[in-house]
Amino acid sequence: MGALALLATTATAVLALSACTATPDGGSAGAGSTSGGADIASLVQADTKTDIADVEKALGDPEPGDGVKLCYVTRTLANEFWGFERDGFENEAKKLGVEYQTFAVNDESSITEQLDKAQSALNQGCSAILASPISATALDSVFTAALDQGVPAIVLNDAQGTIPGVVYVGPDATTIGQTAADYIAEQLPDSGKVAMIEGDPGSSNALNRGKGFKAGLEKHPNLELVASQSAKWDTNQAQTIATAMLTANPDIKAFYSQNDGMALGVQAAIDAKGLTGDVILVGTDGIPQAKKQIADGTYTATVSERPTTEGASGVKIALWLLAGKEVPDWVDVPAFIIDEANVADYPTGMP
To answer: Which site in 36, 220, 246, 259 is 20 to 30 Å from 174, CA atoms measured?
Structure first.
């Protein structure tokens, strides 16, 4: 009870908030259960946002029960960001001796394919379902069914939903957009035209990062958003769109890209126009290639997320819930700026 009291004290209420199997010990798959058959949804503290460090301090190291199998339904691993999210999940499961399985989709935008994977995971007797939904409601039916069966449902990084009992692990996407706007404002203290490259319009991350960026610009009236268009997370599309934006508005001073993959395309467009170093570029995620170019001086900054930490945290949260411990419905894993000042602190991988 002392741990739970500490967790409640540190929590901050908020108003809104294919597959590869590995069995560390070679054993067979099996479903775990909560202590005493506790109702999973009742263990999730509604409207509560707590930093992952505080949650870990309050609850301590998780201990896996017998026959526990954790399943992660991710997005396409062609996007290396989701590869790091998967690595965090799988490495923590290995470390704790927990059986696990990852289900990945081939198409970044295929909601149907991901739903099929999630339903398959639930049907295979997973003790907990972890997922990075393509859209906010894409996997709601699976989450609802899981909770009805006493199976924890945990969202990693994207598409924070509204179903009571589902735990969200990750940063505030709106804050990420605001952080990018504030950083650009610091680099352009006088004035300037800016442009935004958006992700897939059906993605919660894209919608919320865009919302946050525009809200951030409202605090800096000296900055003017002159262009904003979706490149659907695609590098080549982003390069084409950024080239057209620079042609129509040759005095653009800064770009915000909603992920680093697209930002690499934007940087190629900037380079082709002979504007390297003259146009500020802020990406999102903190992938290794972006950090390499920041170190080289050809890319300004990225709002870095912490997918490896998120994946590992998802494992711990699943095990805490299966052990009957209470957790907040939002476990915050804040993002942060990486630029030339601190890029040397992150030479490899993603935190």
So the answer is: 246
CB atoms within 10 A of CB 204: 22
Residue 138 and residue 181 in one domain? no
Domain enclosing residue 230, as ranges? 173-304
Do both 70 and 84 map to the same domain?
yes
**Residue 16: is its pLDDT beyond 90?**
no
Q: Region 94-111: what's the mean pLDDT?
A: 92
Residues 284, 302 contacting (CB under 8 angstroms): yes
Q: Are residues 23 and 34 in the same domain?
A: yes
CB 16 within 8 A of CB 162: no
Whole-number average pLDDT of the chain: 89
φ, ψ dihedrals at 72, nearest 5°: -120, 120
Per-residue pLDDT band for 204 (boundaries 50, 70, 90) equals confident
Residue 227 in contact with residue 252, Cβ under 8 Å? yes
pLDDT tens per residue across span 239-254: 999 999 999 999 999 9
In a domain, 339, yes or no: no
Give the pLDDT score at 38.
Answer: 54
Q: How far apart are CA 302 and CA 323, in angstroms?
A: 38
Tell me how far apart the alpha carbons of residues 331 and 45 are, in angstroms, rounded to a whole number: 11
Task: Report the CATH number that the domain containing residue 284 is assigned in CATH.
Answer: 3.40.50.2300
| Reported pTM | 0.83
